[in-house]
Structures are given as structure tokens and as C-alpha cells.
Specification:
Elements: H1 16-22, H2 24-51, E1 54-55, E2 63-64, H3 68-75, H4 77-109, H5 114-125, H6 132-142, H7 148-155, H8 172-177, H9 186-197, H10 201-209, H11 215-225, H12 227-243, H13 246-252, H14 263-272, H15 277-306
Antiparallel strand pairs: 1-2
Helix pairs in contact: 3-15, 4-9, 4-12, 12-15, 14-15
Amino acid sequence: MHSASPAPRRAARPTFWKRLWAGRRAYLFLLPTFVLLGYFAYYPAYIAFTRAFTDWDGFNPPTFTGLENFRRALTDPAMGQASANVGLWIVLGLLLAVIPPLVVAELIFHLRGPRRQYAYRTLFVVPIVVPSLVLLLLWTTFYRTDGVLNQLLGSVGLGAWQRSWLADQDTALYALIFLGFPYVDAFYLLLLYAGLQSIPKDVLEAAKLDGAVGPRRVWTIDLPLLRPQLFLIAVLSVIGNAQYFLSPLVITSGGPGYATTVPALLMYNTAVKFGEYGYALSIAALLFVVIVLLTVVAQRVARAQGD
């Protein structure tokens, strides 16, 4: 009677240091990249977080102050106004990032003939080559008291609505948010158009046979299948608008008062104009935490929708 032979023993997995030594030549080639990445990306972030707990003017050695900068930021009325402004900007900016590009992508996708689709797609993408600063200056003239907007309102009998849009505290923030409206972001447009092109033809034909055409097809077929693209646009829009401060800086300098001030602009002014780098870095740290939280919430919502 033969006894059962023992099972072969699995080879022991090499340790981390043995695997590192085995791939030393590859890691040696990657070392300059890691060094530059750490110095130019992670080291500044480390400095920003550590100096956020100090009183620092950007030149002299910092003095540790604990949580004082964060307490000041959370009780600063200017920071409160800036937070409310950026909250409104994020919500309206999200709508502008999704709705106009989606409508235009649907219209182009349903054009007959690839040449027409290519021509209209190019027409909406070409403005990318225009520097954003030039567009901002052009729209500044649009909002002036004698600008195109007031002239249009006067020509249709709405002269009572005429005003200095960028100097009025009630309209300045909305004027900046809707600057360029009807706004179609070329990158978001191409992203959604590519998503529409990736929908299988048999799905579209089956939907057509079931009577799902027009808005019903968009609601029942296109939007569910465009969910990955819409989620990516939502995340990019939230992150971009939370950090954005170019148009308030160039056009209104955050005014009138704090009507168009956002946290990123407040951080910039605090550091560059007033030399309070420690306090400015605490605002940057808070902004980073808020952006991470918003991204996590967006991911959870998208995952729940996917389930």
C-alpha cells in the first residue's frame, strides 16, 4: 500500500529588498524622474502644509503658531463671503459644464453626414486657440455701461435693466460666472461626443424600434451610457471652479467689496499683496481639504448611481 505523496511546497516569495535589488537597473533609470517629481510636486506641498501652521512673511524664518491661522480663516468675514461665492460658482459652473456641451454634442451627433459633424465639431473647438486672457478682456467691454449687453437691453425696451454689471454687488458675481455664455467647453464637448459615438449601433436601433427617439432617447439611452463621461466632467468642473480665480483677479480684483472674491483669490491677495504667507497657506490647506471631500462625495454618488 502506497502512501499519498506530499503536496509540492510553494516557492517562498522574494522579499521587497530582493525584488528591489533585482530591478535595480530599471529603478536607476527612473530615479531622476522620482527626484524631480518629489522636488517640484511633493516638496512644495509639504512646505505649504507645514508653513500653514506658522506666522511667515515669505522671507524671514517662520514662527510656529499652531492652529491660529486656521482659526482666523474660519472666523474671517472675508473668507466667509469668499466661501459663499465659490459655492455658488461651483453649483452654477457645474450646470454650465454639463448642459451646454451635452446639448451641442447631441445636436452634432444627430447631424447627417460625417462632414457636417466634423465641420461643426471644428467650429466649437477652434476657439481653444484664443488665449483666455484675451477673451476675458473682450467680455469686460461687453459688460460695460455702454457695452453690447446694455445696448441690446435698450433696443428691446428693457432699458430699466441696464446697469454697470461688474460694479453692482448684486450682479458682479453672476456676470463673471456666466461670462462667455452660451458657454461650450470644447474639451467637455469632445468628451461627450466621443461617448455618444461609443454607444453600440444595435442599442440605438433597438431603442428606435421601441419608440425611444428625441428627448426620450436622450433620457433613457444616452444619459445612462454617458455616466462615466458626465462623472469625469463633474469632478473636473468642481475641482477647476473651486481653484479658479483668474477672471475675478483680472476683471474685478475681487470687488466691489468682496462680491466676487473667492478663496483662491483671497489666498493670492493675502500672500502677494499683504505678505501673510502663513495665513495664505492655511487658506490653501483648507481649500485642498474641501476639494478632496467634494471629490470623495462625487465618487460615492457616482458609485451609488452605478449600483
